[in-house]
Amino acid sequence: MSQTRHLSHAWGNHVLFEGLSIAIPAGVTLVQGDEQTGKTTLLRILAGELAPSGGWVETQGQRADKQPETYAPMVFRTDPLHTALDQTSPSAWFNTLPDCYPLLNPGMLGALVKDFGLSPHMDKPLYMLSAGSRRKVWISAALASGAALTLIDQPFAALDGPSMRLLREVLQDFSEQAGRACVIADYEAPEGVPLASTIHL
Ligand SMILES: Nc1ncnc2c1ncn2[C@@H]1O[C@H](COP(=O)(O)OP(=O)(O)OP(=O)(O)O)[C@@H](O)[C@H]1O
């Protein structure tokens, strides 16, 4: 479904990774590595946001470098450091998503909002939300987007206990869905989430 071929990222004499030829199957794939090993960089390359130094990435037969317009709607990357939406409310942002992600599942999005306890925050600007709530907003959009490839950096960071349990359940369900891949980046394998594959950096 997604794959990389001979992927490398380097600058000056510093090689972050090289020769990565990996297949990303449906279900949950973990990108595992210590600090500063290139997890976020790999996610950005998989999202088509960053050009690799060498090699290429492909999702459902479309290459990020050759077909950027068709590639972008197939991929959703959560970026907890993104500030461009700070003045936007989750409701307003969610209303724009079907334009980019026509396969967005509104029922799933509504259920995640409710179960993550986001309902009281839906009309507030994102900058007013806690780090955990902002992360839940991004994760809800990502998981409901219907994107063929969903990329989530440190999905459990800043989440409260009940939200961690809910996310585990949602990722379990996700791993049983045919046709969608979710790549999560973290230091350790998450408990209770069946993994389709692991990429070690
Ligand atoms: N082209 C580049 N030029 C200079 N530095 C770069 C370049 N690309 C990546 N880096 C740096 O490489 C480092 C590691 O990258 P990255 O953030 O992807 O690792 P990570 O495994 O996600 O780290 P962490 O777990 O600490 O968040 C970062 O400090 C990043 O700024």
UniProtKB/TrEMBL annotation:
Keywords of the record: ATP-binding, Nucleotide-binding
PANTHER family: SKFA PEPTIDE EXPORT ATP-BINDING PROTEIN SKFE
Domain ABC transporter positions: 2-199
Name of the protein described by the UniProt record: ABC transporter domain-containing protein
UniProt cross-references to InterPro entries, sorted A to Z: ABC_transporter-like_ATP-bd, P-loop_NTPase
